[in-house]
Amino acid sequence: MRQGIAILDEDRIPWLEKFMRESYSSCKAKIVLLEGNADVIAARLQKRASKGEHFIPLTLLHSQLELLQADD
Question: Main EC class of this protein (predicted)?
């Protein structure tokens, strides 16, 4: 993502499977979903990126939000 290449579900699945196995076996991690308006997220992302505090370029935000499937 740092190079401006979006990740897809095929990229995420192996990482998520490993994360879930290790997290549930050790109970060390929790998954938190932060929701927000795309404009608000973009402004925050841009602010953090300008300070060198975030690696994902703003150009990927739209595609990543489109792929997000949050369960109720």
Answer: transferase
